[in-house]
Amino acid sequence: MATLRLFASIREIAGTSAKQSEAETVNGVITEAITEFGKDFADLVPTCRIWINGNPATMEDAVTAEDEIALLPPVSGGSRRNLIQDQIPDLHNRELHVAIISMHTSPLTQPGQGDSGGMNVYIREVATALAHRGIQCTIYVRKWNPSLPREVHLEPGVEIVYIEAGDYDLAKERLPEIIDQFTMGVEADLRGRKSIDIIHANYWLSGVVGHRLKHKLDIPLVTTFHTLGEAKKETGHPEPEERIISERETIGCSEIIVANSLMEKEQLISLYDAPEDRIHIVPLGVEHALFSPGNQAAARSALGLPNGSILMFVGRLQSLKGVDVAINALAEMKDREATLLIVGGASGPQGESHERRLRELIAELPSSTHVVFVPPQPHHILSTYYRASDIVLVPSRSESFGLVALESAACGTPVVAAAVGGLKDLIDDGHTGILVEGWNPTHYENAVNELLSNPFLSTEIAMNAAEKAKDFSWGQTANDLIEIYASILSTALVDCR
Questions:
Q1: Stronger pLDDT, 348 or 363, i.e. the higher one
Q2: E strands of 177-286, at which residues?
Q3: Which of 215, 271, 395, 424 has the smallest count of CB within 10 Å of its CB?
Q4: Which domains does the chain have, with CATH numbers?
Q5: pTM for the full model?
Q6: Beta carbons of 42 and 69 less than 8 angstroms apart
Q7: 259-270 exposure pattern, b = at least 16 Cβ within 10 A, e = fewer
Q8: Strand, coil or helix: what is 495?
């Protein structure tokens, strides 16, 4: 069947990002959608651009089962584009063009797999939301597989460019060795493109690349670190000194450092002496068309889950994420039938070694408890797991924001989380979730039992969390970034030399 993909405001009206259709023309596909989604949807259709497989199309065009039809509404209200033009008149009515650097991981990689996580979601959703607002985005990623093409057209306004740099299977720990090669590849591509206005680097490796490109090309630099080496060191996870030095240098030369939470801003100031006036807090968003409350019984039936209480952990299998705390908390639940779903995967020798230790812990669990390993899931399926669960555990030892906690909240599932980093900003303890100080499994078990034993409290927290999650959207994240971009394009560059 052909696939109709919906974007921006028309996606919000439909409450979904995609619909399957057996119609044989664009008109037939859209007519089916109008019948299903109603008058508001129908009123917006005439204003939309129509694409088939990334190319402009008309209502009369034929479609096959392999085709993707996209409906692209006009830029939201037109106000953002006008704002940029008003503030930066030398754009001469062209699109603002942002080079997004994501050296070590691609936004197309499944989160929870390998080194992929919330940052992958962030880059993909931010680039998409920026494109919907008239911003051209080119994303640069290291080519890790010889079968990857040079360039991928993600959607109108978003391109992904894969740069040849080092062996394809080079371990993440060795990526600093090929920063020079990656930087040269990105520079060569940028010089061949028109009007790059902003470099937006993500993670410390990309920050080094962005810092060098800023000086080579005289382009403003915005940096989002996602995690900080000094913050990880404070949790007992040593980081190479090269990372710390590089982070300090990048912070010192970035026009703006984007922090995902107030806690991250405080860490940047206290641990790196970052200038406060150059730190802007821009929270992450959540895709409400995918993550929303639903029927728990139906979700459990669809997934074939067992009876009893269902707890869930989502994330990579690494010590920093605290999945061992979740397993040990389950071990404390001797008098309750419970299952822990671990949704995520391990990567590399360290990840595989950690998974073996986790399985050793699982082997000692009481007979009333069970653990089910679930491979990383795409968002439309992951949301079903959230809805099926009684509680989501987020016992991270470091967390700059807490995207899993936000997605769970949006689905109306209570969260029990560590009182660290951005989780302290995101969760109102006792109101939209429960925060636990430290990583004592007994304390997590106590919090879980409190919710499982008191369905009124659990329901109240779930409702409060879902309501608060409505304040977070990728559209708002993009709007905040646009204001940052506009502000620095009208000022002199920071000179760190």
A1: 363
A2: 198-202, 221-224, 256-259, 279-281
A3: 215
A4: 2-74 (3.10.20.30), 78-285+475-488 (3.40.50.2000), 296-472 (3.40.50.2000)
A5: 0.80
A6: no
A7: bbbebbbebbee
A8: coil
